[in-house]
Amino acid sequence: RTLGGTASASIGERTTSDDSVELSGTSGRLGYYLSGGFLGTNGILPNTQLSSNNAYAKVSYNLPDQGLLTATLNFSRANRGDLFIPQIDLRERQEARDLYAGLAFSKPLTERLSLDILGRYAFRNDHTFDSQISDNTSLTAPHPKEHVSGGDIKLTWRGDNNLVVGGLDYEHFEFTNTDTFSGIHADTLRQKVDRWGVYLNDTLSIGSLALIPGARFDHTQSAGDQFSPSFGATYQVGENTVLRGYTARGYSLPTLILDRGSEKVWTSQVGVESGAVPYLWLKGTLFRNQTWNVQAFDSQGNPFGEQHIALGTELEVRTTPVWHTSLGAGYTFTDTTRSSNGTEVYGDPRHTVQLALRYDDATFRGVLTGRHIWWNQDPSYLARYYGVIWDLHLGATLYKHENNALEVFFSGHNLFNGAQFNDSFLPNPSRWFEGGIKVRF
User: ∠115-117-123 over CA atoms, to 5°?
Assistant: First the structure.
């Protein structure tokens, strides 16, 4: 189509509003997608007000020689309240601006070999304002800015039984941060780093078996050189059952504002997915995550790195729809300990439960979801996580003809005013409602 899209608007308590419009279409060799939106609220909780806008554009052009040129632009801005902690007389708000621009070129070089090239630029500007609740006295105001420019080159080779992908990434990163205290300029940090990485991955199919080896090397400059190998495998057992396994090493890239090294993780998992049982889809996973250089503090407040090991399992089940109705449930158990002495790590969820009841007959739809997280938090945080948080989402299609449709929707959040937070400074909202309308054309 030359033109199509959707427009939606919603209104909820405390003037909470989520409005958006999307347009897309194709004309000859040209294709486009445009979207924009507003998300705002006066705040369900104190100092959680928000006013944000976003705009996104993507335009593609099919070149005469089978190549594809794609340009992307994304911008967002937000003014929001972040913290409200009467216990320590602290209020915090933040202004954020984000911009991303990219230009990509894709072209098949041969029947089996294709090339992708991407150039990109990103800018982020955050300004945080801390003040006292009692008299609005200004406290600290960090103001970090980030400029990132770079490019990526990727080659993809498609064989009869395997898919090989290799590439090179590069980025130039510039970071500045200005700190003020009570309106007085205190310090400015300026840093520049150049980062690059190379990677090679393969997916090899041998009958019912698929093997996925991979490796990546990164020169980060700020966090040293990093080598990240990975290996995965799947095996098809019958028509509806798959066995799978995966192991990989990775790392984090800490912000330049912090004087600390990167965390590293080695994660491994094995599992099975099956639809062999009539009317059921089942999934089970066993996992082990080993993370080291996790920042901790001793009794004198001095930072040091420690190692954590998380062992656990995930179980998921869904039913196939009967009379347009289906059920779903998921459960995760995680046991996280310090490898140095085997003591338990507080603040990492131990039990997580997700529940869902769905109905969809193409005209009316609804989903009731329940969520429970046992945070296993240090008692000094005064956390609350008993019971289940229930949300209800309803929708109906009032009119539908070819590509045109009119829909209404309604949501109720935290229906029974449950408490589910791991820090008394950051409680979750109580019950609130919203509803809206969507038009497709």
Answer: 160
Closest residue by Cα to residue 337 from 360, 311, 298, 361: 311
In whole angstroms, give the CA distance from residue 230 to residue 215: 6
Nearest to 200 by CA among 212, 215, 218, 210: 215
Q: What is the DSSP letter of 138?
A: B
pLDDT at 307: 95
What does the CA dihedral 110, 150, 263, 94 come to, rounded to 10 degrees? -130
CA angle 245/345/391 to nearest 5° reads: 75
The answer to whether 140 touches 180, Cβ cutoff 8 Å, is: yes
Q: What is the rounded distance in angstroms from the CA atom of residue 59 to the CA atom of residue 71? A: 5
Length of the chain: 441
pLDDT of residue 65: 85
Percent of the chain at pLDDT exceeding 90:
86
Half-sphere exposure (Cβ direction) of 66: Cα atoms closer than 13 Å: 8
- CA 129 to chain centroid: 25
What's 304-349 look like in SS3? EEEEEEEEEEEEEEEECCECCEEEEEEEEEEEEEECCCCCECCCCC
pLDDT value at 350 more than 80: yes
Give the residue ranges of DSSP H helices in 99-222. Answer: none
> Which helix (H) or strand (E) is 219 found in, with range?
strand 209-219
CB-CB contact of 273 with 302 (8 Å): no
